[in-house]
Amino acid sequence: MGKTYKIAVFPGDGIGKEIVPQALRVLNAVAFKHNINIKTADALIGGSAIDEFGMPLPEDSLNLALNSDAVLLGAVGGPKWEGLDYSVRPERALLGLREKLRLYGNLRPVKLFSALADASSLKREVIDGIDIMVIRELTGGIYFGKPRGIEKTDGQEKGINTEVYTTSEIERIARLAFEVARGRRKNVCSVDKANVLESSELWRRIVSNVHKEYKDVELTHMYVDNCSMQLIRYPKQFDVILTTNMFGDILSDEAAMLTGSIGMLPSASIGGDVAMYEPIHGSAPDIAGQDKANPIATILSVGMMFKYSFKLDGACSVIDTAVTRVLEKGYRTPDIWSAGQKLTGTREMTDLILNEIE
């Protein structure tokens, strides 16, 4: 009897409750096909946990994550909870998991399925063949820096957020980027704002120092405003993009649209013993419960789980191939549909992918 992989499952809010069950169907099918032992357990986080327990990340949910081999997350947040204090909003669950699981690096592959080239707002010749890995630092920067908050002073309010990075935080994410690049095309573009920000000046210097350990990998630097332009102008120039928490948050969403829909992109958050896998599209409350959500990003996140947490590249390839075949046959969820193609819903898209797997 081989190892049993324990997976903590957090559907979360909005469309998370629809796409995660579909991804689990694919997970179980691939596990059966490859004789992989899987055990899943689910719990509440985000807005659903606030409604049930009055907090976004209950202790039982955190303990489940800490005692698992991997975490599969749907999405958190929605208008229902936007009036809450920042300290107890659904998104604090996501930030809390990253912190407690020591997930300092987010890997977001931006790869175009050729069948979806026409779904992108850019010309086919600009995007055809793009294969980018955006590596975003997750536990430092302006999202965690202190002081932060809103203060009243001199009769007016003042909002404060602090961008902070230390040498060790930059070193570890830089090493991750260079290691990933070694398995790809051996090119890292580090993105910062070193002409304006002292934190970025440190970032650039430390990344350059770490690069001395990876002479087989090419390193370039780019300001974030130029990078945002180059992603639209000539995205094929990028292999691995390494950047800070906030810049990565923005650039990875921009890069997602190169592929035709943000509903197509998976992600892996790694660093500690337990990695977390999630789509990057958010909870999309406007289409929740309507069988319209694209499950592919979550399904591809399961593929990343097999690859990065369980070291089962073959299982990941089975999922990638199945998704490719379904798209090549013209099936589309509403976010990637155009005239002449076959419109499907969340569950039917999963059914089609399962048919290819089985």
Tell me about this structure.
This protein has 12 helices and 14 strands. It has 358 residues and is α/β, with parallel strands linked by helices. The protein folds into 2 domains: 1-104 and 265-358, Isopropylmalate Dehydrogenase; 121-259, Isopropylmalate Dehydrogenase (3-Layer(aba) Sandwich), CATH 3.40.718. Strands 2-1-3-12-11-4-5-10-8-9 form a 10-stranded mixed sheet, with helices on both faces. The chain has a two-stranded antiparallel sheet with strand order 6-7. The protein has a two-stranded parallel sheet with strand order 13-14. Strand 1 (4-12), helix 1 (16-33) and strand 2 (37-42) form a beta-alpha-beta unit. The mean pLDDT is 94.
Task: Indicate the topology.
Blueprint lengths: L3 E9 L3 H18 L3 E6 L4 H7 L5 H8 L3 E6 L15 H10 L4 E7 L12 H4 L3 E7 L11 E5 L2 E5 L6 H16 L4 E6 L5 H14 L6 E6 H10 L6 E4 L1 H12 L9 E5 L4 E5 L16 H13 L4 H16 L2 E2 L9 E2 L2 H12 L1
Parallel strand pairs: 1-2, 1-3, 3-12, 5-10, 8-9, 8-10, 13-14
Antiparallel strand pairs: 4-5, 4-11, 6-7, 11-12
Helix pairs in contact: 1-10, 1-12, 6-7, 8-9, 10-11, 11-12
Task: Please give a handful of descriptors for the protein shown.
358 residues; Isopropylmalate Dehydrogenase; ten-stranded mixed β-sheet; two-stranded antiparallel sheet
Q: Could you say which overall geometry the principal axes of the C-alpha atoms support? A: globular
Strand content: 15-25%
Largest sheet: 10 strands, mixed
Radius of gyration: 20 Å
CATH architecture of the largest domain: 3-Layer(aba) Sandwich
Q: In the residues, how many domains can be counted? A: 2
Q: Between the first and last Cα atoms, what is the distance in angstroms?
A: 23 Å
Look at the structure and give the CATH class of the largest domain.
Alpha Beta
Mean pLDDT: 94
Count of helix runs: 12
